[in-house]
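Support request from a user on the community tier.

User writes: "When I paste my C-alpha cells into the form, the page sometimes reloads and wipes my input. The last time it worked, I copied everything first. Here is what I submitted, just in case something in the input itself triggers the reload:"
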C-alpha cells in the first residue's frame, strides 16, 4: 500500500492560481487602475475573447449562471403556464428558474451511462403547451443534441443549453462538422462558479447566441430592460459581470484548453485503474461529444448504503468525494405542488442512490490519483 498522500482536494483553485499568479495579479491591477468596475473595457475584452473562442456571434455576460438561465427564458417571451422540458437530474437552478417565471417544469429521465437526457423519451413529453427544452450537459459531456434539435425544430420549440459544466466541449454532427457546447441551440448558458472548468473567483456567468434578436433582448434584460440609460423598453433584472471577475476569466480563458486536457488526463488515469472493477461503472462517453470532466462520477451499483459507507471511509482516509446529486428534482419538496412522485423518473432516482464523484481538477497528478484509487478500492471491499 502506498504511503499516505496528504492534502488531496476535491477542487484546487489555490494551486491553480499559483501557476498563473502573475497574470491574475496583473489583471486585477488593471481593473483598479482603470477604475471601470461595471461594464468597462475589461468586461468587453473578455466577452469578445470568449465569443472568438466559442465561435459565437454574441456573448452576454451576467452575474451568475442561474441569472443566465432566467435571462434566457425571459428573452424567449414565454408566458405563465408554458411548459419547459428539462432533466430531473441536475442542479436545482435549472428548474428553479422555470418555476420562478411561472412556467411549468416537465422532466425527461436520463441515461444511466451518461447522466444526460434520454432523447428517446423526449418527444413523448411534448404537449401543445411545450415552448422550450433545456438539455443539461452534465459533468462535462454534451447531450445528444442533433436529435434534440431535430425534434425541437419539428415542433417549433426553443432550445436553451444549460452549459454550466461543459464549456470547451465539442459536439460533432453526423455530417462531420463540430460546434462548441452552448452554440447548438438558440441560447447557451454557462456558470463561471469558481469550481467550474472556466472558473471565476466569485459568482459570474454568461449566455451565448448566434441569434442577433435574442442576444439584443438578453443584453437589455441584464441591464434593467434598457438599451439607453434611464430608458426601459421591457422588464429586466440587474445582472452584470463584475470587472474583477472578467479580468480573472480573461486570463483563465487562455488556459482553458490545457485545463480541459488536464482533466481528461486525470479521467484517463481513473479509467485505467477503475475500468475493470466489478460493480463500479465509470463515466460513459459518446461518439458525438468530447468530455471535459467537470466531474468524474462513478456509479456504485450496490446502491446507497454501500455508497454512503464508502464516502465515510474515504473521508477518514483523507480522500474527499461528493454526491452529485443526492436527490433528483422531482422528489425535492420545492416541486411537490407539480404532482411529481417517487418512481416517475426511475433512472434519475437510481443514479442518485449510486453516484460518487472523485476529486477532479487541473492540479491532480498521477501519484495522487493512484492513492485515491487505492483508497477507493480498499473502502469498496471493506464497505
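"...and here is what came back when it finally went through:"
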Amino acid at each position: 500500500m502506498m504511503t499516505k498522500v496528504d492534502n488531496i482536494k476535491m477542487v484546487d483553485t489555490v494551486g491553480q492560481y499559483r501557476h498563473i499568479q502573475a497574470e491574475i495579479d496583473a489583471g486585477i491591477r488593471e481593473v483598479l487602475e482603470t477604475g471601470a468596475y461595471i461594464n468597462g473595457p475589461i468586461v468587453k475584452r473578455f466577452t469578445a475573447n470568449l465569443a472568438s473562442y466559442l465561435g459565437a456571434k454574441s456573448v452576454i455576460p451576467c452575474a451568475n449562471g442561474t441569472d443566465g438561465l432566467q435571462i434566457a427564458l425571459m428573452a424567449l417571451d414565454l408566458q405563465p403556464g408554458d411548459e419547459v422540458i428539462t432533466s430531473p437530474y441536475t442542479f436545482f437552478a435549472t428548474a428553479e428558474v422555470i418555476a420562478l417565471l411561472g412556467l411549468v417544469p416537465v422532466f425527461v429521465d436520463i441515461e444511466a451511462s451518461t447522466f444526460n437526457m434520454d432523447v428517446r423519451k423526449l418527444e413523448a413529453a411534448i404537449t401543445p403547451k411545450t415552448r422550450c427544452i433545456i438539455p443539461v450537459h452534465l459533468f462535462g459531456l454534451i447531450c445528444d443534441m442533433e436529435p434534440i434539435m431535430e425534434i425541437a425544430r419539428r415542433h417549433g420549440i426553443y432550445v436553451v443549453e444549460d452549459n454550466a459544466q461543459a464549456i470547451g466541449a465539442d459536439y460533432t454532427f453526423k455530417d462531420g462538422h463540430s460546434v462548441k457546447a452552448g452554440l447548438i441551440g438558440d441560447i447557451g448558458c454557462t456558470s463561471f462558479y469558481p469550481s467550474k472548468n472556466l472558473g471565476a473567483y466569485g459568482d459570474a456567468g454568461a449566455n451565448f447566441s448566434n441569434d442577433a434578436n435574442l442576444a439584443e433582448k438578453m443584453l437589455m434584460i441584464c441591464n434593467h430592460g434598457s438599451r439607453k440609460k434611464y430608458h426601459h423598453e421591457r422588464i429586466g433584472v440587474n445582472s452584470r459581470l463584475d470587472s474583477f471577475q472578467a479580468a480573472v476569466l480573461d486570463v483563465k480563458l487562455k488556459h482553458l484548453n490545457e485545463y480541459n486536457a488536464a482533466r481528461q488526463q486525470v479521467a484517463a488515469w481513473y479509467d485505467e485503474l477503475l475500468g475493470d472493477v466489478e460493480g463500479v461503472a465509470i463515466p460513459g462517453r459518446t461518439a458525438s461529444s468530447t468530455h471535459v470532466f467537470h466531474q468524474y462520477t462513478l456509479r456504485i451499483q450496490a446502491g446507497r448504503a454501500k455508497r454512503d459507507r464508502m464516502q465515510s471511509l474515504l473521508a477518514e482516509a483523507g480522500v474527499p468525494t461528493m454526491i452529485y446529486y443526492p436527490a433528483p428534482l422531482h422528489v425535492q419538496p420545492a416541486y411537490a405542488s407539480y404532482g411529481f412522485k417517487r418512481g416517475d423518473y426511475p433512472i434519475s432516482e437510481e443514479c442518485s442512490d449510486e453516484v460518487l464523484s472523485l476529486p477532479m481538477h487541473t492540479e491532480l497528478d498521477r501519484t495522487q490519483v493512484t492513492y485515491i484509487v487505492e483508497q477507493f478500492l480498499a473502502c469498496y471491499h471493506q464497505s
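Agent notes: The reload is a front-end session timeout and is unrelated to the input. DSSP finds twelve helices and 14 strands in the chain. The first strand starts at residue 58 and ends at 62. Escalated to web team.
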